[in-house]
Amino acid sequence: MNHSQSKELFARNRRFIPGGMVSLNRRVEPEIAFVKGSGAYVWDLDGNRYIDYHAGFAPYLLGHGAPEVEEAVKKSIADGWTLMGSGTTPWEGRAAELLCECVPTLDKVQITTTGSEATYHALRLSRAYTGRDHIVVMQGGYNGWHDEVACNVMTPLEALGPKVSGGEYPWKPLTAGIPEQVQSRVHVVEYNDLEAVAWVFENYPVACLITEPILQNIGIVKPRPGFLEGLRALCDKHGVVLVFDEVKTGFRHALGGYQSIAGVRPDLATFGKAIANGYPLGAIGGKAELLDYFDHPDPSKRVLIAGTYNGHPVTIAAAIATMEILLREKDTIYPRLEALGARMQAGLEKAFASHGIKATVARQGSAFCAYFMDHGPLNWYDLAQHHDMDFDGRYRRALVDRGVYHFPLPTKQGSISTAHTEADIDLTLEITEDILSAGL
Ligand SMILES: Cc1ncc(COP(=O)(O)O)c(C=O)c1O
After folding, report:
1. Cα 181 to ligand 1 centroid, rounded to whole Å
2. Model confidence over 210-229: pLDDT tens digits?
3. Most CB contacts within 10 A, which of 1, 26, 401, 405?
């Protein structure tokens, strides 16, 4: 596959953008400059077409440029929905109402521009509400780029070191520039380890525990039976706010989020990504007694939420359209995504088995990840110990070279949209069969 024009653009962009691209979590090999997306496909500058499973890091549940969402965006512009930045608007009220309708555990919501802002506010609200400072995060979970949560996502085991007291893991920041003191109030535990959570709760003044209900930034790492319920019980016992970060799971797995599938009610939940099918919108919602801290009558307890672009009308229009489509067609959309996901899983399992490759395909609905190990991972430690990362890297790279854009970084989730067809899945499986036959 020719990427010469992509290469040239990277070289040009490097003059003005460090790394040559916006957001360096997008830096992978091969270096590709993308120019167009439509439905289940994306195109690069050299004219190559890919079946897209990256979905822009997962927002595209309805496919790139979903017509009804794009129409709503155009209409919002034509109707003069500009950014007011004062008072309220009918459209932000409608989006909030829809969110509460889609996710029954939400009494109230606030709207942000990104998922990271939503998780940031979840920490702040929890601290204001409990009067405590410490937080618990999951190793292998990603909850945004801000100081307190930017740690321990894919930390190599050599860098991680052994468990410390009570089952906690050493805090390993994802970035330079985080103040040293942050570390003392962030506790990192392994996902699916209730004992470690209990120990931290017993030993520190914890404001909140934040977790993706399924770890979807290291593939698809599912809660073992009773884990989410156990978190709920421990949070209740210790007065800790339970935050489900549904930025990736929300709207993708069910209208009511993964919490509606698990049947566990968090105190707060954060959303983003699929909520606006590719437009930048985040949300934080949950129990009124917590959300009302944003408007607390006592100024010393009131939690600041501000953002010039919060509730931007164009992104709000996209979110309203997306949620209206999902509400109207949920009985066909989610079963269809499940069927496409199951087709992908069965086909991949068959292909790996027929080539004698040790693999486990983990999946929740339309989100999938192949692990090259003999079981689905329990947590990051298990995954890092057993998954063949090098093979995964070669497998993804070969897919990209054959026109299947599965993000070429080991363990990254594949995302199917309603724009994918059975034929797209079958072609992906044929290509998988070809690359396995050719040898990796
Ligand atoms: C679970 C989860 N939470 C939070 C975020 C941060 O969202 P954003 O990138 O919109 O700030 C992400 C982004 O990948 C995510 O996957």
Report:
1. 24
2. 999 999 999 999 999 999 99
3. 405
